[in-house]
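the eight lines:
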Amino acid sequence: MPNRYLDILQRVAAGTVAPEEALLQIGQAPFEQLVQGLNLDKQRGLRTGLGEVVFAQSKRLPDLLAAVESLYGREEPREPVLVTRVTAEQGTALREKFPDGYFYEQGRLFALGKDLSLDPPWIPRGDVIVVTAGGADIQVGMEALGTARFFGLNAGFIPDVGIAGLHRLLPYLPDLGKARLIIAVAGMEGALPGVLAGLFPAPVLAVPSSVGYGVSTGGYTALAGMLASCAAGIAVLNIDNGFGAACFAAKLLNN
Amino acid sequence: MPNRYLDILQRVAAGTVAPEEALLQIGQAPFEQLVQGLNLDKQRGLRTGLGEVVFAQSKRLPDLLAAVESLYGREEPREPVLVTRVTAEQGTALREKFPDGYFYEQGRLFALGKDLSLDPPWIPRGDVIVVTAGGADIQVGMEALGTARFFGLNAGFIPDVGIAGLHRLLPYLPDLGKARLIIAVAGMEGALPGVLAGLFPAPVLAVPSSVGYGVSTGGYTALAGMLASCAAGIAVLNIDNGFGAACFAAKLLNN
Amino acid sequence: MPNRYLDILQRVAAGTVAPEEALLQIGQAPFEQLVQGLNLDKQRGLRTGLGEVVFAQSKRLPDLLAAVESLYGREEPREPVLVTRVTAEQGTALREKFPDGYFYEQGRLFALGKDLSLDPPWIPRGDVIVVTAGGADIQVGMEALGTARFFGLNAGFIPDVGIAGLHRLLPYLPDLGKARLIIAVAGMEGALPGVLAGLFPAPVLAVPSSVGYGVSTGGYTALAGMLASCAAGIAVLNIDNGFGAACFAAKLLNN
Amino acid sequence: MPNRYLDILQRVAAGTVAPEEALLQIGQAPFEQLVQGLNLDKQRGLRTGLGEVVFAQSKRLPDLLAAVESLYGREEPREPVLVTRVTAEQGTALREKFPDGYFYEQGRLFALGKDLSLDPPWIPRGDVIVVTAGGADIQVGMEALGTARFFGLNAGFIPDVGIAGLHRLLPYLPDLGKARLIIAVAGMEGALPGVLAGLFPAPVLAVPSSVGYGVSTGGYTALAGMLASCAAGIAVLNIDNGFGAACFAAKLLNN
Amino acid sequence: MPNRYLDILQRVAAGTVAPEEALLQIGQAPFEQLVQGLNLDKQRGLRTGLGEVVFAQSKRLPDLLAAVESLYGREEPREPVLVTRVTAEQGTALREKFPDGYFYEQGRLFALGKDLSLDPPWIPRGDVIVVTAGGADIQVGMEALGTARFFGLNAGFIPDVGIAGLHRLLPYLPDLGKARLIIAVAGMEGALPGVLAGLFPAPVLAVPSSVGYGVSTGGYTALAGMLASCAAGIAVLNIDNGFGAACFAAKLLNN
Amino acid sequence: MPNRYLDILQRVAAGTVAPEEALLQIGQAPFEQLVQGLNLDKQRGLRTGLGEVVFAQSKRLPDLLAAVESLYGREEPREPVLVTRVTAEQGTALREKFPDGYFYEQGRLFALGKDLSLDPPWIPRGDVIVVTAGGADIQVGMEALGTARFFGLNAGFIPDVGIAGLHRLLPYLPDLGKARLIIAVAGMEGALPGVLAGLFPAPVLAVPSSVGYGVSTGGYTALAGMLASCAAGIAVLNIDNGFGAACFAAKLLNN
Amino acid sequence: MPNRYLDILQRVAAGTVAPEEALLQIGQAPFEQLVQGLNLDKQRGLRTGLGEVVFAQSKRLPDLLAAVESLYGREEPREPVLVTRVTAEQGTALREKFPDGYFYEQGRLFALGKDLSLDPPWIPRGDVIVVTAGGADIQVGMEALGTARFFGLNAGFIPDVGIAGLHRLLPYLPDLGKARLIIAVAGMEGALPGVLAGLFPAPVLAVPSSVGYGVSTGGYTALAGMLASCAAGIAVLNIDNGFGAACFAAKLLNN
Amino acid sequence: MPNRYLDILQRVAAGTVAPEEALLQIGQAPFEQLVQGLNLDKQRGLRTGLGEVVFAQSKRLPDLLAAVESLYGREEPREPVLVTRVTAEQGTALREKFPDGYFYEQGRLFALGKDLSLDPPWIPRGDVIVVTAGGADIQVGMEALGTARFFGLNAGFIPDVGIAGLHRLLPYLPDLGKARLIIAVAGMEGALPGVLAGLFPAPVLAVPSSVGYGVSTGGYTALAGMLASCAAGIAVLNIDNGFGAACFAAKLLNN
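prediction for all of em together
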């Protein structure tokens, strides 16, 4: 890096760069070098399998379709594309334009070039297992499951095993004991991740869901409860961020 | 009640009460009758064993001693007195003035005329059982236990059985299954009451404790988690309000 | 409802039912994979004394109907079923499918196999009495009343006696004085439970309602006020959780 | 006002004021006129008896003494001075420097040139009556009472009549019925003002106090409860702002 | 309005009405079971000087019409009735049923038996003057103005004089200087009441309005700013509670 | 825009306009009672250098059209007018009434008498450069850009360069290094302004946008992050307040 | 499990268990089985190297010493012990009692039976690398580093590379690019984890620190910013919870 | 301060300093590992125009002294150094070690190599003028004033002109009208910046101060009020961040 500075200074001495201009160039030189490193990193990221994903929420339909088309490419071999937070209306339009795509309404996902196989019966085992506490948490759990599969993970799904019925976990003890990572989705008081972290050796990614009413509204109580949990081995995602949990898992298991 | 109004109106007619004065008397008449009913209720309350309790927090020492002396009375038969939120300094002063009193530092209680027997080993069974999640919740649990005993309840105590170590509950299953009411004290994410409510037939009074750091600070996360719990049969007290839980129990079991 | 299980066990004790037969009746599987992602916890009643109730909020219509049908059973003797947070649309669909069911729109309840008798005139007395502060709290009060009756409690109802008109309590003093438990629903500043706890020997379950505007919005002010109340013998439920208050009462009075 | 503008424009025409300068003068002209009106108002304010009051909190001792000395003046007739939020240490220093001043430690007030007569027994009647809910609210109530008296109001004091003991109000019904304004201080859930507003014709200034623990901490629950009160005729002050309530009363009753 | 009761009592004193007859006129029952769950508190006027007003928000149409009819009475002399928070739909229905009533859409008020004269041009003077900061605060200001007039106050109105244009106050300085009470409505940062309290001798009732976006959303910033104001003589109402400010004024000026 | 006033004053100084004539042109009355309750503060421009802009949000259509017409004037030379927060419906109505106006839907702006040239391709350089973090922040960025241009600023636009893709900044380093002021719009965690302030000599006006879900909801997290930033040279606007940032820039660069 | 039920039923049939007792036994059977599984899991956990750790905060000295002594054992081979949140006073007492222990004051850790080597110079590479944003975040970073080493991880440390000086990251690009997991500690606006997640393939555990003033107070702004981050591959711990991040890492890398 | 770097570059351009020599003078290493974990970012000045300032809060004394010494340099020409948030104890130690330094206790600043002249009488004019609302805001205002002067700005100071006494602004109208930037410090409701922005052409940097009690506690109400202000031309800093306001001003006026 010093060479870069010397180079600038020599141009100043040579009169080809004004001192004021040099001042700016010296100031931004480290950043340039850093973000060029970043570009290299981004390409490495592409190699690891974490391609671009389209966040459909509040996107206008033409913009959404154009974004998907651009990522998917026009010639073989095409790049698989994942779209998240897809509304029913957006899903219909995507299906119309890309008839070979898959729309998973419950998980609000649309996948192109890859079948995520999100329909039941669900396999309750894998390197990463998505566990949901209540019936209403499935939407978020599906987003995590589908994203994980899109990134090539071996992912399982165990819905509806909240702490009010802990015995429902019984049939899954062996599989959960073998997972490398557990993604636990829960609303209300958000107690499920703490219980799982106390039972199994795998660390737990906790995703609060915005399910509930009164003090549960919006998922903040679940979020705080997960952060405050006295059980060791839990880290927490933003409310409803099943996608983020799967990204964490993919970066972890694909590298 | 109409008679009372009629009485007022007749005095107006007789000229012994001015119309303006009558207006005020009529307005407040229903309230007077109501709070007189209240006085009667208070005496019934005294009969049930819920006598006056002194809240020592932020009381000046002379005021505190005077309040205790006044309640305790000067002649036999004396009324037992309970003082809550007693600091070490206040406890010393109370012991000095009332040498036959009991000071329970861990529960911040001082009792006069009644031995609350708060020292271990603790009996883990009773009509009401106080359960605490962590070691640091004992102070609040003790306040609940001592107050319950002061009000004459048959109360047990099971400390330190948080959800990170659910197996610690195993030895107490039979006793907890027979309790009429469970008081569960927990800080952090406050998940213990939900677990207990899912296991036992007794309703659970949940007391959040102000134990913790970060998002647990002050007990608000535990409070919200308890209110949001998806397990049925839980009602919640103010943070650290072990006293209030015991009062609820006493009103319930003594009537 | 626990009676059904006890009844089976008593027949086993009496020798009129073989253990193997009883096992079948109780249900071997700990839960039934009824609708996708929705486990109905039929054994929860065994553990806690309260049977499964269907929470209709945000359930899709086919899932809701299937859940009710499964719980209700297909042969006599059928299990009574309660559905809570029923929308008008859901209520109509339930009535269509189960013509002998009762839909109580004001309380957002649907009951099958049991008439909850929620129409006025209301009886202002019982072991548990539901009291509401304002006209707009009735919806929550009704949920408490109907749930209590579903669980077999002797429950009364006194609407619209907020603290701005305390004299309205006058006619009910004797009945409230005899109740074993009072459920008080209030929005705004949530002061009613504190007043009742100061007047009557029964403990008070306080339910904040989300009625109001400005700082009352969402019921948080009422919730905080109830938790902070200086009157002894109050425990608090989540906002609008009339169902939870009735569950607490049922666990208390049915055990 | 147009004259003022014309005057400016004429100076521009005459070349004695530059256009740029005139632009600023025209812009601020209305403000100048307004705040000059303000100066007149301030003098009227002085006539009404609301003189300057010194807020001692976080003032350094020399600054505090200098401020008081400057207001008190050096020659007869002197202006009475009130100092609020006086710490014990500040009070001692003030007494030392102004030996004929009065230091009311409980109300954290220091008065010079006027005896506020804050010691018990307190007179429970007056044009404005200060009512406090609990023993710990007296400090704030005293600030209101002393300030009201400093401003020349006929002010009474009724401490410790919280809603958990409404019958304590009975002896004071006639006096409260005749007051023109009630100042009600309460912590915890802050329900007292609502009860008073439901009983008496006078409007109620509600002052939340920072007394309490858990959700009461800092007085926010009392504040919200008072604002949300369903009883008509209540207006609310900042937490612990007994001084502000008395100022409102003085502006009202002295004009 | 209390005059009606006083009138009866004065006739009793004068001997033109017998006490028994008066009792019937005042109403023996402390309240009337009008619509299900909606007790109209006719005696509140006796106690507090303010008659019953109907809060239309979230009331069902038949209940609303029945409530108004009952309060209005069926024979002369009728009692004037005020309805607040009236939606356009409710207003139309009220007009249809009570063709001689007045519906003030901007203030969301409906008045029967009394013309509130809320249309411009507005008179900027009176015993109480309602001042609003921005164009969007007028709705709340109108509620205050109309309610004040309903209670018989001499009330003025000065809209749209926020602190970004203080000079707009200039024409109103004399009138504001003579008012006995100022009601100031403001959203955003809520600074208007502090400016008015610094300018005029009258105390200021501050009403935060829910106008704004970002941190202004819902009126909480205005509310806090008004409570925190360093200007003396301000008391604060709940957000958008123009009705409450007028009630305070009426209790103050009518007693 | 202040130029117009300055222009008049300079003509007065030059003797080509008489002071009395100028007075008329500037407008004698400090404000004009245009629509009911809506004072247009034409003099604000005099004081502060920024003319009146119409905030369309929650304005009724007739009021909005009247306000714009009044500001625009009826004769040449007309005053350019800007309207902000224009809905699609309002935009259509404005276009209909003022066919030569410009409606910029993405920026929710309507301009009369001035073309703001908001369509792409955008010029990434200027005295002030508006930078947005994500695709969804463009709406707020557009409001800033259009307002800045309306006030005559030389303003550039660089959208969609959030910190997850810092390398996108590389092409803009020279232009950003020469800007006098940067306006940075960001939602989510709001980190962009801190990064920019660490790289460039220009101070940064940070505008949090309400983009996001979970803890990002409403823009409060971005707001707090911007205020807390450890990078020097950042000042923050209200959430979504692109207009305010441009006003700050105009006052700065136009004076 | 059915066998267990049959066994109970057979005892009922045999008369050795009462029906009421059987009801409880059947209810708790699944829980017993689950927590017995938990015991097995706990033993597996012990094998993975995550032994018991003592949380010293608010523990009384004798209790703390006893806890450490009990875990450390009295005979060889002893179990290494880690104590977290150790105050200076506690550290001194621990050193006195266990002279071969290590007290790391900056990280508030005490280790027995294992040297954590926390003194500089720090190695900036490893499977897990702890990165801190500011000088004041070191305390939390040290807790993470020491805990990770206690659990046997190959852990590196890079302090003081906040986003205001991103170029400081330059020398560490290669090492950070090879890490399997990054732990990023940051206060203020908490932007560091988002920057790291955008640069490197490893997932990032983000730990907000309670460093700062104003809106940064207590770490909530950093916490929210980390949860809201738009960069993928971040999961968040409680404020100051460096210990928890290391536990997550240990469960991940040790299994 | 950037001048120093520019000066070096200009000498390179002039040929009086060789590029290699200049490189040494600027400093080859991008940062210096001065004290453990504390990187001093000497290049930040290059990039942003502001040199490094030492934030003393919570720094240990030896680290603080070492940091100052390193920045100050050991040979002439020395770099002026500013230290902020200096406690009395830190100030004494700094004075002892650097006897020619200036310690400004009220502004919590220590300056080396530059006299900031912060003692009264204060000059009320300059390119940037710092205005404070109350007496207690002076500490924050002083931090802004001293920092601005350290960065070479022509800065004035007008203390104690809060909105409760707007007339105090009158003498300063001309000076404030000529300022290029106003820094306004206010606690309580934070209304001062809005008033100033409505009066003067300069934009206003608003700094909320943590002065106050009740809802003012910590400065959040002032912060929100400033953000919500309806006056155009305001941008807001973190609570008590006088330093940040001066940095913004320096970046603006020095570039």
